[in-house]
Every structure is written in structure tokens, then in C-alpha cells.
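Pipeline run #58 for the internal structure catalog. This entry was flagged by the ingest filter as a single-chain record with no existing model, so it goes straight to prediction. Upstream metadata was stripped on purpose; only the residue string is passed forward. Reviewer on rotation: M.T. Logging verbosity set to normal.
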Amino acid sequence: MSVVQRSLPHRLLQPPAWLLLQLLLLGLGLVSVAWNLVSLPLLVLLPRETGRRIGRLAISRAYGGFWAVAGAVGMLRMEARALDAFADEPGLIVVANHPSLLDALMLVSRLPRSACVMKASLVRNPLLGPGA
């Protein structure tokens, strides 16, 4: 006697992609708010250069975590290790064309010493401003 197991197609078991993207972006926003709560006191307590080094590293790791989770849940497949060769390069300018602002997150996750040049209105944004 054999048992035939029937299962739903794999795509029906996955939540809709847009819902998953919204959850990922919500998580990114919550991490940003949490970092803002940590970074504001550090702004006052740490010397400027130490704070800058810690801030850039923390933001780079957080964005790297975002991309790792997005890859683990199947939302994307990204190969950006080629940027690692530039991680310690002084005076390098890398320009993102920002079709969705996620390209900047990818660049910062791979280039931890990077600094972003952005519009003044983004610096006033409550989610992006304090961390920036």
C-alpha cells in the first residue's frame, strides 16, 4: 500500500510578495527608530570621530542584516561582494541612481566607511535624519 501525498504548489504557500516587502520595510523602519534612540545620546557622549566610526559601522551592519533577511525569505538575490574591495579605499565616490532608495542601503551595507550626501529634507525626516 502506498500513500500519495498531495501538496499545494510552492507559490501558494508563500505570502504575497508585497506583504513580505511591507513587513521587511516595517522592520527596517523599526531598526532605524531604535538606532535613532541609541545614536542621539551617543552624539553627546562620544568624541565626534569615535561616534562617526561607531555610527557608520552600526548602520552598515543593520543594512547588511536587512539584506540578509530579505535574501533568506526569498525576496531578492543580490551579489554585491565586488564592492568589498573598495571598503577601505580613501576618497572614492560611488553614486547611486536611487530608483527606490534601497540601492543606497545596499552600498552602505558593503562600504561601512561611506558617507551619504542627501537632500536636506531627508535629514529632517524623523526615520532617516538622526541616524544620518
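catalog note: Helices lie at 10-13, 17-45, 48-72, 102-110, 120-123.
catalog note: DSSP finds five helices and no strands in the chain.
status: ready for reviewer M.T.
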